[in-house]
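Whiteboard transcription, Tuesday session. T.W. wrote the structure tokens on the left side:
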């Protein structure tokens, strides 16, 4: 006989840990199930840091969600008594006519996001150690910064458990049977029936929700930690994060946290991953070629060869925007997927939204632009 649970969260990574927390803090009875451990390095929420910013060049409709995400990260810091968010600022550089710089200015105009335009003299002062390509415009967002990614997941989990959430770890969910009134969930050893389920399975979302045929593509992404040749990029020297829109791709990184290395990566590109459980974690020479080129052109105080690396996965939608929705046959099956390599900063508010949808069937957050039917409209 299956065991009854009110709510079940499938996948306790960036989004699932937050959804679990939001349900538990509302006093709901919730069970979280995860195939690996907490804050593990096999999905999409590991590698020390994630950029957070409000000058959202991807789409200005994300900005109201970001306002709430910022408040919720602050609340989580207070509740967990952990330092999660470093507001070190972010330099964004690119051609003035490019989508990135234009998008930064749109965020400024539409939503009053604070952005400074840097002159050549400002650049020398604010981000020494960077050679800005000819003709680039440079902006600085003082309220941007980075999140400590594993600590954020752990903090959501710790606080969820403190509010009474239950969890089962190291057990992959093998089947979801969705009827109009309830949802059956099974692992190799356990069988539950839930009134509501949130699926936050990251790179495994298409596998978990096969019948929905979600238009998702998983790609392999490599993060690099390259040795610094001087302290010029140190967080302690007041340096922030950076994002460059280069002609051959987009590159981003963080100030040096350890005084020895800078973490950086290419945001664009990535090879398709056929099986997220068995993604190739070895480094090949071609992996670091574009980042080495970027370093050679822009960051002369950084060694071109990495000291270490990590492999992570982006789960992309066709338009690069998230997919947040309810199952067409049972609105109590809610999913958040396709975070397309820019979702972590939203994890705090995504948990709130997913908790709203599964418990109330609706949310007051403006998420219509993230609904799945936008893809059906395209093919109609
Ligand atoms: C290299 C890299 C850099 C990034 N940089 C940024 C950044 O700077 N800023 C930013 O905002 N975002 C960034 N992102 C994106 C962001 O990290 C992701 O969008 C976000 O972490 C995705 O969270 P998720 O919960 O969807 O996936 P995950 O955190 O991977 O969680 C999914 C979970 O579901 C579990 N699961 C899956 N299937 C099952 C099953 N059948 N049974 C049980 N458990 C299951 C998995 O084990 C996993 O724990 C980056 C991503 C990567 C990979």
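and on the right, the sequence the group agreed on:
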């Amino acid at each position: 006989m299956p065991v009854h649970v009110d709510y079940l969260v499938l996948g306790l990574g960036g989004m699932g840990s937050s959804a679990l927390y939001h349900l538990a803090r509302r006093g709901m009875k919730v069970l979280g199930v995860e195939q690996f451990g907490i804050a593990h390095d096999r999905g999409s929420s590991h590698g020390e840091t994630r950029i957070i910013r409000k000058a959202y060049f991807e789409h200005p409709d994300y900005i109201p969600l970001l306002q709430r995400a910022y408040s919720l990260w602050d609340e989580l810091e207070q509740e967990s008594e952990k330092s999660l968010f470093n507001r070190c600022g972010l330099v964004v550089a690119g051609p003035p006519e490019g989508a990135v710089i234009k998008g930064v200015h749109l965020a400024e105009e539409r939503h009053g996001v604070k952005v400074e335009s840097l002159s050549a003299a400002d650049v020398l002062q604010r981000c020494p150690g960077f050679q800005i390509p000819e003709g680039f415009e440079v902006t600085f967002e003082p309220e941007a910064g980075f999140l400590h990614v594993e600590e954020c997941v752990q903090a959501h989990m710790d606080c969820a458990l403190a509010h009474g959430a239950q969890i089962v770890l190291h057990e992959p969910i093998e089947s979801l049977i969705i009827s109009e009134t309830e949802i059956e969930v099974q692992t190799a050893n356990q069988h539950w029936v839930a009134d509501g389920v949130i699926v936050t399975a990251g790179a495994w979302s298409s596998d978990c929700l096969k019948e929905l045929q979600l238009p998702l593509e998983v790609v392999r992404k490599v993060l690099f930690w390259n040795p610094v040749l001087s302290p010029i990029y140190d967080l302690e020297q007041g340096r922030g994060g950076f994002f460059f829109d280069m002609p051959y791709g987009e590159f981003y990184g963080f100030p040096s946290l350890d005084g020895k290395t800078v973490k950086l990566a290419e945001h664009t590109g990535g090879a398709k991953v056929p099986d997220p459980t068995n993604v190739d974690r070895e480094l090949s020479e071609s992996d670091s070629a574009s980042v080495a080129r970027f370093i050679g052109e822009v960051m002369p105080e950084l060694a071109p060869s990495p000291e270490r690396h990590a492999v992570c996965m982006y789960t992309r939608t066709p338009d690069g925007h998230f997919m947040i929705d309810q199952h067409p046959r049972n609105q109590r099956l809610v999913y958040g997927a396709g975070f397309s390599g820019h979702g972590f900063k939203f994890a705090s508010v995504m948990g709130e939204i997913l908790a709203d949808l599964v418990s109330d069937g609706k949310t007051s957050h403006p998420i219509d632009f993230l609904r799945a039917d936008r893809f059906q409209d395209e093919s109609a």
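Someone added at the bottom: The radius of gyration is 21 Å.
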